[in-house]
Design a protein that fits this description.
Residues 108-226 form the CUB domain. The chain is mainly β. It is built from two helices and 31 strands.
């Protein structure tokens, strides 16, 4: 009696999983057929090969950043559900369309618990004018988070005391514990800072104290948690990673004044193949750190740069710049060079009598230290605008 052979049946079982592995950025499908064959009418064999087709439907790259669809903000790639329950907002797809670019914002009274979050003023982008105190906390998302980077996309608060540089009515303060804090006020859009949290287990606090009435305030601060491998060098409050750019002291603005009680280092990452760096003023009025420097009274018998140099050492507000040589351009267009000064203060980046100059340094690492002391005396704000310098790294010469 001939055996009846029946068609082969194929079944697929799809299991939806969430991939929690950090490096998973795309969906994966693994499938095999599962067969059942009935061999005869009176004797059939049930012979399945059990198989699962796995559809990784919600890949979640927990540390992968994405760009929002409007191009303005950085988000974290999550699935739609996770974005919603974490109070984020979806801005376009990511992970081949299986996730969304989830952007997080926080304001007064909130707690930041994401890799990237935007701290915004109340009613942003509307102006805030009423006096108040605004505080939020930042919790580390992982033990290996070593720093917070704060990018001041928009930052406008009340100005410091115009005569002393002290932040009196409005102050931004970031603090960790009792011995680690940094504070600013005024106009700081475009600035950034790194804040060390390597050994911290308690949340970091950010406080905006605003006591003056009828003062326009607006801020949008990108708070990024930085793992140890990507951290800025130790001791750098600011870290510029481009081969050329602009560096400014805090509150450098037309109606601004450099702040008192500031002591920090601005660092520039040394690019490959570059061996020196050149600094020059942004314009002829972009270096104003105190009144013009004159020789000390007890050095009246001295002359030239030595007397000026001794006077610079007495400046309570100054910048310290490791350097090798200084190039001057006279009004007639002639160029001369000589040894540069380590300390700079007064109303000109250049030496007395020079209007244009460039300072070159091959001392590594590339950095400038800002040292603005306490408000020991009242001075004209026009003489204390602060510093704006252009920098450009120079290639090695064999």
């Amino acid at each position: 009696m001939p055996r009846n052979i029946y068609p082969v049946s194929t079944f697929y079982l799809f299991v939806v999983t969430r991939d929690n592995f950090r490096n998973s950025v795309s969906s994966r499908i693994v499938q095999k057929s599962c067969r059942i064959r009935f061999q005869t009418d009176d004797a059939h064999v049930f012979s399945p090969v059990f198989c699962v087709a796995v559809l990784n439907f919600f890949p979640v790259p927990v540390s992968d950043e994405c760009l929002s669809s409007d191009g303005r903000r950085t988000g974290i790639c999550l699935n739609t559900y996770e974005c919603r329950i974490q109070n984020g907002k979806s801005y376009g797809p990511c992970a081949l369309g299986f996730g969304v670019c989830c952007v997080f914002t926080a304001s007064c009274g909130d707690v930041i618990e994401n890799n990237v979050t935007y701290f915004v003023s109340p009613n942003f982008p509307a102006i805030t004018r009423e006096p108040s105190s605004c505080e939020l906390e930042v919790k580390k998302v992982a033990p290996d988070v070593s720093q917070l980077r704060l990018d001041f996309i928009h930052f406008s608060m009340g100005q410091p005391n115009r005569r002393t540089g002290v932040c009196e009515s409005d102050t931004f303060v970031i603090a960790a514990g009792t011995d680690r804090e940094f504070s600013v006020c005024g106009q700081n859009s475009g600035q950034h800072i790194y804040f060390d949290v390597e050994d911290m287990t308690e949340p970091v606090t950010i406080v905006m104290n605003m006591s003056r009435e009828h003062t326009a305030r607006l801020w949008e601060i990108k708070v990024t948690q930085i793992e140890f491998q990507q951290r800025a060098p130790s001791g750098c409050l600011q870290y510029h990673q481009d081969g050329r750019g602009v560096i400014q002291t805090m509150n450098f603005a037309e109606n601004g004044r450099h702040l008192a009680n500031q002591d920090y280092t601005i660092c520039m990452r040394q690019a490959e193949g570059m061996c020196s760096i050149v600094y020059e003023p942004c314009d002829e009025n972009s270096f104003k750190i105190g009144p013009a420097v004159a020789p000390l009274a007890d050095d009246a018998g001295g002359s030239g740069e030595s007397a000026i140099g001794e006077a610079r050492e007495q400046c309570s507000d100054k910048i310290v710049m490791p350097c090798d040589s200084e190039e001057f351009l006279s009004a007639e267009g002639f160029s001369t060079s000589g040894l540069c000064d380590l300390l700079h203060c007064g109303n000109s980046f250049c030496s007395p009598g020079e209007t244009t100059c460039r300072i070159e340094s091959s001392t590594t690492p590339f950095n400038i230290r800002v040292m603005f002391g306490p408000a020991v005396r009242e001075e004209s704000p026009e003489d204390n605008l602060g510093m704006c310098l252009k920098y450009e790294q120079q290639p090695c010469v064999s």
